[in-house]
């Protein structure tokens, strides 16, 4: 209860030790340490380490080597987590340490964590992390800011290596903020001649402020319907195929970043068509500087995050989700349901067995507005955007979609002539 915590909200060292001494006494039940089995000894050692828990840092770490000195395998230790969970009143997470490449079992003390609130709740300003990226002298081809780890170390990635990103998270989990930070980061490093954005906002709330940004190929948002998205995807597929034919000149053409928010509106409306288009688009797209980021808050395995869609994305990000099943669906393991929201996330790359926990960066609405104003004032914004979908080409795309002549005429009357 709250009475066992001091005024700062932290459990005192003495109270933690007393609590675990009682648990150890019950566990030993009069036995000596030498009388314990291998499994019991492992639980005993966990209890001993938990007793040394720093109340201001409510976590303990255990390394999981392939096989320990006393012959306990990883499988045994995984079973022990369940056995010891009741004894330690803790929740286990499996992590892969980035530096040592060893598997780590992290156990969180829930009593302390509940009072402390989110251990990742502090805002991590995007501006600060971009500055750190520059100071570190990193030279990624397509840099994005991932955030900070537990040790407050900045983490960056090259979207060229990540290729494509699939994200999920409940409302308020921070996935939309992450989309904004990706856009803000990329537009701070590249000119419109070097990078283009194709934004799809089916909720019509996330990307409207980017209207008029010189980086835009297209903004599918207010007043648009799924068929408009398919026209754009068809153009992107054609653009990808053209680029594949001119591989030697790829270095001279701009990156295209496709961000699709709330894709469930598309896949539920036209499941076969949407999946076929995405499969055709993403096949070798990263080779020719086209990268896709897609997210939705409804991680249904049947009609949204289908096996085909998941298989197209080598990088997965899970923000706070409502249950274990949703977490397992996106990153293959539990943990997403225990995140705290507000950008607390798990990142899983294709070559990693376990996800990495990070706090995603934060950018205020005012900073986004300033970025937009700066970019719209930039002389580069006056340059012709070569990769806009040409008005004259729309009838062909409509025809490919199977629209009748009458339907095409109606659609053309609503299209903006460039």
Percent helix among the residues? 25-40%
The rounded distance between the terminal residues' Cα atoms is 66 Å
* Bulk shape: elongated
The count of DSSP E runs of length 2 or more, i.e. the number of strands, is: 13
> How many separate domains?
2
Structural class: alpha/beta
Structure, explained:
This protein is α/β, with parallel strands linked by helices. The chain has two domains: 2-116, no CATH class; 126-387, P-loop containing nucleotide triphosphate hydrolases (Rossmann fold), CATH 3.40.50.300. It has 15 helices and 13 strands. The chain has helices at 13-28, 38-51, 74-88, 110-116, 126-136, 159-162, 175-189, 226-245, 264-269, 271-282, 307-312, 324-331, 365-377, 394-400, 405-414, and strands spanning 59-64, 91-96, 103-108, 143-148, 154-158, 165-168, 195-201, 216-220, 255-261, 290-296, 315-318, 344-348, 356-359. It has an eight-stranded mixed sheet, with helices on both faces. Strands 1-3-2 form a three-stranded antiparallel sheet, covered by helices on one side. Strands 4-5 form a two-stranded antiparallel ribbon. Strand 12 and strand 13 (356-359) form a beta hairpin. Helix 1 (13-28) runs antiparallel to helix 2 (38-51). The radius of gyration is 25 Å and the shape is elongated.
Topology:
Elements: H1 13-28, H2 38-51, E1 59-64, H3 74-88, E2 91-96, E3 103-108, H4 110-116, H5 126-136, E4 143-148, E5 154-158, H6 159-162, E6 165-168, H7 175-189, E7 195-201, E8 216-220, H8 226-245, E9 255-261, H9 264-269, H10 271-282, E10 290-296, H11 307-312, E11 315-318, H12 324-331, E12 344-348, E13 356-359, H13 365-377, H14 394-400, H15 405-414
Parallel strand pairs: 6-10, 6-11, 7-8, 7-9, 9-10
Antiparallel strand pairs: 1-3, 2-3, 4-5, 11-12, 12-13
Helix pairs in contact: 1-2, 2-3, 8-10, 14-15
């Amino acid at each position: 209860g709250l009475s066992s915590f001091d005024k700062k909200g932290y459990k005192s060292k003495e109270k933690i030790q007393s609590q675990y001494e009682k648990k150890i006494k019950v566990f030993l039940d009069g036995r000596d340490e030498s009388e314990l089995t291998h499994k019991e000894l492992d639980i005993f050692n966990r209890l001993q380490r938990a007793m040394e828990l720093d109340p201001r840092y409510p976590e303990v770490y255990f390394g999981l080597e392939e096989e320990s000195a006393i012959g306990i395998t990883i499988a045994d230790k995984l079973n022990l987590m369940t056995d010891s969970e009741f004894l330690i009143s803790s929740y286990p997470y499996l992590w892969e340490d980035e530096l040592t490449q060893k598997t780590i079992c992290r156990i969180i003390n829930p009593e302390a964590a509940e009072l402390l609130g989110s251990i990742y709740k502090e805002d991590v300003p995007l501006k600060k992390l971009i500055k750190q990226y520059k100071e570190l002298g990193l030279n990624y081809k397509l840099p994005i800011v991932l955030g900070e780890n537990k040790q407050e170390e900045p983490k960056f990635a090259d979207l060229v290596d990540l290729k494509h990103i699939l994200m999920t998270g409940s409302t308020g989990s921070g996935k939309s903020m992450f989309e904004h930070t990706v856009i803000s980061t990329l537009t701070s490093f590249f000119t419109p001649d070097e990078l283009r954005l194709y934004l799809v906002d089916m909720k019509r709330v996330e990307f409207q402020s980017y209207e008029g940004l010189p980086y835009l190929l297209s903004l599918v948002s207010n007043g648009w319907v799924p068929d408009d998205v398919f026209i754009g995807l068809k153009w992107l597929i054609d653009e990808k195929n053209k680029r594949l034919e001119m591989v030697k000149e790829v270095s001279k053409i701009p990156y295209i970043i496709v961000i699709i928010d709330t894709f469930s509106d598309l896949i539920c409306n036209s499941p076969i068509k949407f999946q076929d288009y995405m499969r055709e688009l993403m096949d070798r797209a990263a080779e020719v500087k086209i990268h896709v980021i897609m997210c939705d808050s409804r991680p249904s395995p049947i009609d949204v995050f289908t096996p085909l869609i998941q298989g197209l994305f080598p990088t997965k990000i899970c923000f706070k989700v409502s249950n274990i099943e949703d977490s397992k669906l996106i990153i293959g393991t539990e943990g997403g349901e225990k995140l705290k929201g507000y950008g607390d996330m798990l990142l899983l790359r294709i070559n990693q067995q376990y996800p990495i926990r990070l706090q995603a960066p934060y950018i205020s609405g005012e900073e986004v507005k300033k970025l937009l104003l700066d970019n719209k004032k930039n002389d580069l914004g006056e340059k012709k955007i070569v990769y806009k979908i040409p008005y004259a080409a729309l009838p062909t795309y409509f025809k490919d979609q199977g629209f009748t002549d009458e339907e095409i005429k109606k659609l053309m009357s609503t299209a903006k002539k460039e």
